[in-house]
Design goal:
Urease, subunit C, domain 1; TIM Barrel; eight-stranded mixed β-sheet; 17 helices; nine-stranded mixed β-sheet; alpha/beta; single chain; 3 domains; globular; 17 strands; binds zinc ion
Length: 486
């Protein structure tokens, strides 16, 4: 390492032994700059000094731009081994120290104790002794393509997606927007044309009244709101079989049922979506449909914690929200919610509380209700899924962590999940929420090589998910973002 201290930080290029360079006054900055593979082409490190030194100086003089950080990477074609890591693989197993993860292309080929198996000839070794590895994080509630001509213009969306990836997020569930744009991002993310989490998205279906909402006009620009396969108005006359088939054609993973549908339509739409192998996502309640009815209709994921409280009579719910002197602790430990949570557990219905968005919006009372409901649901065996409803900033300028890290802290501190429970909510459970549990969500042979290398143990303190050192998505290796903790 520059000015001494080589070692772990050079896990990037294990075959190269960088020699001391005497730029001591700039040591910190140089160390930071040099450490990040993104900005320094690998070829530079095999050319000899002083040529290498001059070349590196030239590169250091180049302005630091998000461009270099967000340049898309490809998976190596050969074997790559991450060695010496403490692996929490997401399967429910304990953390295993001294573990090697062997990948080839976009897949994990083997996971074993360091040295217990010979590495295939030509394997590139990336030593990460003492570092921690968890499966790639999945934010199960984002919107990256709602307002494509404005807030979600492609340049902003790409920045937001890149920061999410470099912050450890390897997949995200988009909960409705302009599917024409989202499908394009999904494609670019999947093939590696942009540095981005992989995306799963929904075709949104709502009652006709919803399509006076200006957001639907943004997401349907160029077409009549409510008329598109990716965002459709439905009522009792809709040919659901045709509508689901068209939704599938957009590349959607699910139908998101929304706003003012009748209980009968929720049942019928869910059944048809499932018949054609789409998932069904929804808010935990609608104006005419209670959480228990949503569950019994077969909806796969119920979003927004406070909406679970809609199992209460409206007057009781309103009092609970308005009278902040009423304690929430234990408020949902009642037969009503025991019945609901037992049914959710029995059916495998997932609950996605989105604590972050309530806390961030200044709706702390709703956030506190969501947390208390999550605590109870979790205790009753309901599968909890982590989602933010706000992936992270797409603004120019300073880098920020994706918001999922805060959601994880809230799940632990406010909703009483264990650190392992919060990690499962953002990995294995979230993978199940997008129907991708056979592909991602755990670090196991055969699955996609999606994982995060952390400096510190997230099981000891959930805040340590923020210590992102490297991110691997589909076998492509990225350095953790520039302002992330080191
Ligand atoms: Zn949302």
């Amino acid at each position: 390492m520059l000015g001494g201290g080589a070692g772990e930080a050079m896990g990037e290029w294990s075959s190269v032994k960088p020699k001391r360079i005497w730029l001591w006054p700039f040591r910190g900055w140089l160390k930071w700059r040099y450490r990040h593979a993104v900005a320094l082409p690998q070829e530079l490190l095999v050319i000899r000094r002083p040529a290498r030194f001059v070349a590196i100086l030239l590169l250091l003089a180049a302005p630091l731009s998000a461009q270099s950080w967000c340049a898309p990477h490809r998976a190596d074609t050969g074997f790559v081994a991450f060695t010496g890591v403490s692996l929490w693989d997401g399967t429910g197993a304990e953390t295993r120290r001294g573990t090697t993860i062997l990948i080839k292309g976009e897949r994990i080929t083997a996971v074993f104790k360091d040295g217990s198996q010979a590495l295939p000839a030509g394997t590139a070794v990336r030593p990460f002794t003492g570092k921690y590895v968890i499966p790639g994080l999945i934010d199960a509630h984002v919107h990256v393509g709602s307002d494509v001509s404005g807030e979600d213009a492609r340049v902003r969306a790409d920045r937001r997606l890149c920061r999410a990836l470099l912050g450890g997020i390897t997949a995200a569930r988009d909960m409705a927007g302009d599917t024409r744009a989202i499908a394009s991002m999904q494609r670019d993310a999947k093939v590696g044309d942009i540095a981005s989490p992989d995306l799963y998205f929904a075709s949104l279906w709502a009652g006709p009244a919803f399509f006076s909402d200006p957001r639907t006009a943004q997401a349907s620009a160029g077409e009549a709101p409510g008329s598109m396969p990716g965002m459709r108005a439905i009522d009792s006359t809709t040919d659901l079989r045709q509508a689901v088939a068209e939704a599938r054609g957009t590349g959607a993973t699910a139908i998101k049922l929304y706003a003012a549908l009748s209980p009968e339509l929720v049942v019928a739409a869910t059944a048809e979506a499932h018949r054609q192998r789409l998932l069904v996502w929804a808010h935990a309640s609608m104006a005419q449909v209670s959480p228990l009815q949503m569950t019994r209709a077969g909806v796969d994921v119920l979003s927004h914690g406070p909406r679970v409280a809609r199992e209460l009579p409206a007057a009781v719910y309103d009092t609970l929200v308005k009278d902040t002197t009423l304690s929430l602790r234990g408020r949902f430990d009642t037969p009503t919610f025991d019945t609901l949570f037992a049914e959710m557990r029995r059916r495998g219905t997932m609950m996605e509380p989105t604590l972050f968005i309530y806390m961030m919006d200044g709706r702390e009372r709703l956030g506190a209700m969501a947390a208390e409901l999550t605590r109870r649901a979790n205790a009753r065996g309901v599968m909890i899924v982590a989602g933010t409803d706000s992936l992270g900033s797409g603004d120019e300028g300073a880098w920020t962590l994706p918001n999922l890290h805060e959601e994880l802290r809230l799940l632990v501190r406010e909703a009483g999940l264990s650190t392992a429970g919060a990690l499962a909510a953002s990995t294995r459970n979230a993978a199940r929420a997008v129907g991708a549990e056979s592909e991602r969500g755990t670090v196991e042979p055969g699955k996609l090589a999606d994982f995060v290398v952390l400096d510190a143990d997230p099981l000891a303190d959930i805040s340590n998910t923020a210590t992102v050192r490297q991110v691997v998505k589909r076998g492509a290796v990225y350095a953790g973002g520039p302002t992330l903790p080191r």
